[in-house]
Amino acid sequence: MPPLALTGERTLPDVPEENYWYRRHLVVYEWIARRVGGASVVDMACGEGYGADVLAGVAREVVGVDANPQAHEHAKLRYTRPNLRYARELVETYRPPQPVDAVVFLQTIEHLQDPEGVLRHYRSLLAPGGVVYVSTPNVRTLAPKGAERSDNPWHVHEYQAEEFERLCEGTFGDVKMYGLYHARKLRVHELALRAGWDAAHPRLGLTNAFYGRFTPAIKTSDFVLWPSASADLEKALDFVAVCRS
């Protein structure tokens, strides 16, 4: 299958130094998969295809949509299931032949010039009772301290919690917000950073030895999703909006 370059535009599995970001995205796909059993699903901006494959493990049918020719071809060759197919089309305009039960749109809305228009389009694709799952990084935890945004060149706009919720509520009548947070060893690592670990490991010459083992060992269980009523969204890594008409 054609290899995909690690450019920062999309997350890839099987790259040890990228494992943190891959698991951070995968855990949300797995969380959604527990909610779409037997459903018809469109995975917009499916990229490499690992998320569409996770969803197809439980859904009735899944279409992975991506306009990038290399990603499209890679996904078709790597992830094959009878109930999984791919469409090389723009996520702004793709329309399935029939209304679907769920649209999944993860870590991509921050790349768009017209997010409101895209959300309206996704609402129009839903069957009665359908749901749109949208995620985006929290600019407050993604951007360096004191910066207004991250240095990711692919991002058009990065969101704070209230802003992202308002965006979704502008199209959908029922929006439930969730936050993704560190858990288990990532939570311990987070506390160590606050205690000065970033200054200590270079001085002790432990950087490569520690992170060469730590990063590849990260699992999806090292993240947790909490509803907004149970946690402070301003401290979340990513926001996940569950949107219904």
Please describe what this structure looks like.
This protein is α/β, with parallel strands linked by helices and 245 residues long. The chain has a single domain, classed as Vaccinia Virus protein VP39 (Rossmann fold), CATH 3.40.50. It has nine helices and eight strands. It has an eight-stranded mixed sheet, with helices on both faces. Helix 2 links the parallel strand 1 and strand 2. The model has no long low-confidence stretch (mean pLDDT 96).
SSE blueprint:
Layout: H1 19-33, E1 40-44, H2 50-56, E2 61-65, H3 69-78, E3 84-87, E4 100-106, H4 115-124, E5 126-137, H5 139-142, H6 161-169, E6 174-182, H7 184-194, H8 197-204, H9 207-214, E7 223-227, E8 238-244
Parallel strand pairs: 1-2, 1-4, 2-3, 4-5
Antiparallel strand pairs: 5-8, 6-7, 6-8
Give a summary of the structure in a few sentences.
By secondary structure, this protein is α/β, with parallel strands linked by helices. It has 9 helices and 8 strands.
